[in-house]
């Protein structure tokens, strides 16, 4: 009721002597009603109406305090929708703190915008504000995030150009930090269906992450033999690894089926039986096991199953990229 009353007074007393007091009181009531966005909009209107007032600096300071406190609270309580966070950023981005204090709060806004699929806005904020405050590894991680945002937004050329620029710098200043950029560039080339170029990006890399991406590209090329070698580096049938990725076991099982390698398939499924048993895809793995009827010699029987498996793997990759 107080908000309605003050809003009515604000309209009827526009330009009158009491307007200043009405707007100030309205902002206070909005804060008491836990509506910080409306409070900020009211204070913004107040400063716009009275820019030369002696209290203008105090109002500006109050707006910064409300803005910062609202986002800090949202980090903990998640009580503001990503759309309202976008409005806060668009309307009051100038209130963002400076220096190191900006990093945490700006990173939060970027992550919320990404979560809502507002990729252009997240990229703008990351590039335009956050990077200027970051150095070293934090800066590298943020540049990688920008490149991934470009990829998610299907701006592959921008992602490649960005990683190329950074690689040229890192080649002389920090060669050990080049791997994440090469992996990101390989993702961009893969998304553009430039699979050979993507493999060239990964050529010097031997980490599990690079090997997993290499295997994915080889599978897309239907290069089953090379894909098998790459996957076997990640999944050693001789030693069960409890935390091996289910999709990797599934990929390798599918390759063994396609190549008709019955004994290797059976050993793989036996070795990773505990991982498979805990999976919702257990039934599909059971269908992969060789039967007494020598089902591996009848590939038609596996056609629908393999299509399901490929669809599952594509969904997993899409979900991972989105995250």
Structural class: mainly alpha
Largest sheet geometry: none
The geometry reads as elongated
**How many E strands?**
0
Q: Spell the H/E element sequence.
A: HHHHHHHHHHHHHHHHHH
Distance between the termini: 43 Å
Radius of gyration: 28 Å
Low-pLDDT segments: 291-299
Level of helix content? over 70%
Give me the number of helical elements. 18
- Residue fraction in strands: under 5%
Q: What's the overall average pLDDT, rounded?
A: 76
Topology, pairings included?
Layout: H1 2-12, H2 19-32, H3 36-49, H4 56-77, H5 82-92, H6 100-115, H7 119-130, H8 136-152, H9 156-173, H10 179-191, H11 195-202, H12 208-220, H13 224-234, H14 246-259, H15 262-271, H16 273-277, H17 282-288, H18 300-322
Helix pairs in contact: 1-2, 2-3, 3-4, 5-6, 6-7, 7-8, 8-9, 8-10, 9-10, 10-11, 10-12, 11-12, 12-13, 13-14, 14-15, 14-18
In short:
The chain is mainly alpha-helical and 323 residues long. The chain has helices spanning 2-12, 19-32, 36-49, 56-77, 82-92, 100-115, 119-130, 136-152, 156-173, 179-191, 195-202, 208-220, 224-234, 246-259, 262-271, 273-277, 282-288, 300-322.
Walk me through this protein's architecture.
The protein has 323 residues and is mainly alpha-helical. It contains 18 helices and no strands. Helix 6 (100-115) packs antiparallel against helix 7 (119-130), helix 8 (136-152) packs antiparallel against helix 9 and helix 14 (246-259) runs antiparallel to helix 15 (262-271). It is elongated. The two termini are 43 Å apart. Mean pLDDT is 76; it is low at 291-299.
